[in-house]
Recover the amino acids of this structure.
């Protein structure tokens, strides 16, 4: 099958956001369930839910796992797409026309649809079309279904129908491991001391830490220097 993980409205999936790069012992069972959900998508007979709701606080890795799910679907020769509700809100609901034909559809940050009745109805209609096609819908949010602020009762009901899992925040040790893994994928060596310095100097939010690592990576290539604490201080002083 053709991989449709990119539409005109979506961006390239990050190459390093895979199931293997999501290093969290406390969330291992969630990752396993997501992989199984993708593997069983469009299975016959109809023996599994068509939807999966993944929720957790900001920075716990929901977007990472949606990107990973879309990438995993592509590895299995299934069509996939990963869309951000923040981006969808800038567009007409007509952009969803026909998307139910895709095997695995991932929608990130559904809490952003709170207060927008038009888009809530559009996602509810998409749910129904996906079920008719026996395809799969993976949705993320920052709260449990009842706390999302979704006012369309039918959509709340749909969100509660399928599988539901909550992501636990990564520990500092897991964040250090994740940073070092991301660094190694870029051909960089990030010591425990340097990783912990980033954790204490920048933020404990993984999104901020990964963004900082990207900046340091580019600076390291440009200046042909290793990522040491003095180098981190120098680069951070330039960007703060």
């Amino acid at each position: 099958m053709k991989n449709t993980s990119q539409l005109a409205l979506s961006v390239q999936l990050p190459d390093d956001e895979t199931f293997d790069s999501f290093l969290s012992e406390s969330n291992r069972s969630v990752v396993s369930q997501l992989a199984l959900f993708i593997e069983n998508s469009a299975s016959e007979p109809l023996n599994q839910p068509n939807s999966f709701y993944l929720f957790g606080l900001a920075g716990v890795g929901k977007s990472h796992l949606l990107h990973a799910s879309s990438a995993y679907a592509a590895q299995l020769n299934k069509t996939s797409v990963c869309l951000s509700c923040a981006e969808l809100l800038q567009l007409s609901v007509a952009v969803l026309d026909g998307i139910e034909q895709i095997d695995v559809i991932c929608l990130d940050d559904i809490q952003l649809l709170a207060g927008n009745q038009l888009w809530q109805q559009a996602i509810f209609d998409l749910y129904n079309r996906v079920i008719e096609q026996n395809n799969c819908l993976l949705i993320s949010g920052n709260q449990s279904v009842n706390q999302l602020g979704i006012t369309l009762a039918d959509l709340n009901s749909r969100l509660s129908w399928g599988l539901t899992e909550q992501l636990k925040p990564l520990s500092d040790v897991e964040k250090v491991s994740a940073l070092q893994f991301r660094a190694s994928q870029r051909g960089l060596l990030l010591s425990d001391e340097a990783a912990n310095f980033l954790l204490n100097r920048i933020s404990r939010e993984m999104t901020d830490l990964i963004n900082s690592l990207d900046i340091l990576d580019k600076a390291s290539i440009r200046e042909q220097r290793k990522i040491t604490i003095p180098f981190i201080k120098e680069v951070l002083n330039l960007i703060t």
Remarks:
- The mean pLDDT is 87.
- Residues 25-166 form a domain with the Rossmann fold fold (CATH 3.40.50.300).
